[in-house]
Description:
Elements: E1 2-7, E2 13-17, H1 22-31, E3 35-42, H2 48-59, E4 63-66, E5 72-77, E6 84-85, H3 87-92, H4 100-107, E7 109-113, H5 126-134, E8 138-142, E9 145-149, E10 158-160, H6 166-176, E11 182-186, H7 192-203, E12 207-209, E13 215-219, E14 224-225, E15 228-230, H8 235-247, E16 251-255, H9 263-271, E17 274-278, E18 282-287, E19 295-296, H10 308-315, E20 321-325, H11 334-341, E21 345-349, E22 352-356, E23 365-367, H12 371-383, E24 388-391, H13 393-397, H14 403-409, E25 413-418
Parallel strand pairs: 2-16, 3-14, 3-15, 6-7, 10-11, 19-20, 23-24
Antiparallel strand pairs: 1-24, 1-25, 3-5, 4-5, 7-9, 8-9, 11-13, 12-13, 16-18, 17-18, 20-22, 21-22
Bound molecules: uridine-diphosphate-N-acetylglucosamine (UD1).
Amino acid sequence: MSKLIISEGRPLKGRVRVSGAKNSILPIIAASLLADGKSTIDEIPYLNDVKIMCDLVKSLGASVTLSDEKTKLEICCRGLSNTTAPYELVNKMRASFLVAGPLLAKAGYVQISLPGGCAIGSRPVDLHLKGFMALGASITQGHGYIEARRSGRLKGNKVYLDFPSVGATENIMMAATLAEGVTIIENAAIEPEIVDLATYLTSMGADIKGAGTDTVKIYGVSDLKATSHTVIPDRIEAGTYMVAAAITGGDVVVENVVTDHLKPVTAKLREAGVEVSEELSSIRVRRRDLSAVDIKTHPYPGFPTDMQSQMTSLLSMACGTSMVIETIFENRFMHVSELKRMGANIKVEGRSAIIEGGSRLTGAKVKATDLRAGAALILAGLTADGTTEIENMEHVDRGYIGIDEKLKNLGANVVRVDDDSGN
Length: 423
Ligand code: UD1
């Protein structure tokens, strides 16, 4: 347990480099189970969630080596010694469910704990299971676990997703790589991380067409080989530093970005009066006055739900009334009550937050309830008068590599205090 103490809000200035995408590396580690041999993955963000996924694939029989600089993983898979993903690991991180597709395809059987509820909503896995069943798997459920098995190879089929779920698209895509015949996922998610996973699988020998569109075709192959891959930059980490520059009235160059992936964030920041200039692989963000904007979260290329809480912090300082509507998760306004303790004027009605902007934020003791809620509180603290203490930083550490160091390099006055050591 640790907390971050931020004193004296001040404009951030300088350059910050974005790490590899958390939401890419997690399915990519799971996909490594499909190959025989040693895969090398570069630009990995060695976050707590990544450690959990590594522990999970190790428990299934893979060996994992991390480079000294903690930016490269070698995953060696020569047969699977276990096909059970236990509650202890799936409960810690919902993305653990992504080993289900690879295990089902490769080993023919998987027993995996149901992910259960999480802080931002119920997050079911019905679409993942619908896909597995369409490919011929039989599914049973009991004692908090799901069992999926196939007899013979999985068989390619059409799968229509009622909602373009990121995780379901990934799980079904991975399972279908080793199926017999063609699988067509309709209404598939089109997030950049889906494309990154498809690139990885293709370099393993899979035959995938249309990743990044709403119709993905997977032509099954008989086996996949180990490969090497470099993970795409994390667009949510990039967006968070862009908001950090904007909220503090600073001037920051965010490096190692794919500007296309940031279009919805860039568009909304510009609409709010923030100056955003795009270079080939970097973005410069400066701000003077801020005005209110309305935001509605949508699947990509709509405004990302993972940037909603950070924008809520920013809009609490903008001139005028903004409305933020969350359409992806049912309980994703937990940062609001904490922001109100810092002086923000926000009213939540169902899935909408109405923000009366122009508040001068003041430092307070606040608690991160989940990853992005924690990021929103850090952003508020970076501009607040006085001292802000953000507790439960372990949530933030799930998604941001070295956030204290990166903020310090931009001139923020931040100190981490480890509760265990009493420092
Ligand atoms: C991924 C991201 C997460 C992001 C989310 C939406 C990873 C590791 N995490 O999560 O950061 O916030 O996409 O962009 O990539 N749903 C169902 N049934 C299902 C699956 C999903 O109803 O079987 C619903 C969920 O409850 C939710 C919505 O679909 O309301 C979106 O979920 P999904 O796209 O699956 O998100 P994740 O893959 O869990």
